Amino acid sequence: MLTELLDIKGVKVGSRHQHKGIGIILQIESISNESICTQCGTKSYKLHQNHRYIIKDLPWGESPVFLEINRRQFKCQKCKKPFSEKLDFVRKRRKYTKRLAETTLKEVLRSDIRSVAQKGLVTTEEIERMLKDARSDLPKSPPKNLKKLGIDEIALVKGKGNYCAVLIDLEKSVLIQILEGRTQLEIKNFLIKWGREVLDKIEEVSIDLWQGYKSLVLELMPNAQVVADRFHVMVQINQELDSQIKLEKTQLTTLLKNAKTKSDK
Asked: Per the database record, which ranges form the Transposase IS204/IS1001/IS1096/IS1165 zinc-finger domain (predicted)?
């Protein structure tokens, strides 16, 4: 039941501990007894060492959840070199799951880094690393079939004038890029790289009321209609996010009720 509730592919929950003032700690293990050598691509079954550490995951209701994971080290029988197994749900040298990072960044898009960090689940430094990781994961090539572009901002520190710009495909509700700043020049230099083939096909650009963005759109995207409403940029993503959160809460409530019913019997 706990493995199903955790819902991470390829792992099983070994034990669960509730610590007052801390949260829930789940000890998890990989189901597979093999791994692929990162050097030569050979499948290996020879366990070399265990490396256990704790990472943060999405909370269960009001309870923080921590995962005690074991990133096992195998020894390749072909090239004789030790290597660490790849865990799809967490990046190397990160103390939080990928899905926690994704959820956190969606919250940041609707708010700012400090407000999200004040909830106590992740720190401002961790959020900044999440932003850098997300930026490095985004495609470097120009977007395809882009017709509705959203240009919005993330407040790194609210009220301090420290922002970065985000570019969004509004039709697909997909993040295109996170820029390091939000100045007209920074955005222009990035958009120019897309070329006329992409820019001329953009039909609508949703921006805030800052005149600098509007003049930039008129200069680079002459065929686009300017929608001067910054909240329109995020409305589609917010609706999808809210729907997903409601669905996950319903599923979680059902699973917890079923678990309680079984334990009562």
From this structure: 36-79
Q: Quote the distance between the C-alpha of residue 184 and its chain's center.
A: 26
CATH number of this structure's domain 148-231, picked from the four choices 2.20.70.10, 3.30.420.10, 3.30.300.30, 3.40.50.12780: 3.30.420.10
**pLDDT tens digit string along 192-234?**
999 999 999 999 998 865 667 888 999 999 999 988 654 544 5
Q: Dig out the tokens for 108 from the structure.
A: 């940041």
Query: Per-domain residue ranges for the chain?
Result: 1-137, 148-231
Q: Using the 8-state DSSP alphabet, how is residue 101 labeled?
A: H
Quick one: pLDDT at residue 199?
A: 97
Burial class (CB in 10 A: 0-12, 13-18, 19+), 27: middle
**What is the spatial distance between Cα 146 and Cα 220, in angstroms, rounded to a whole number?**
14
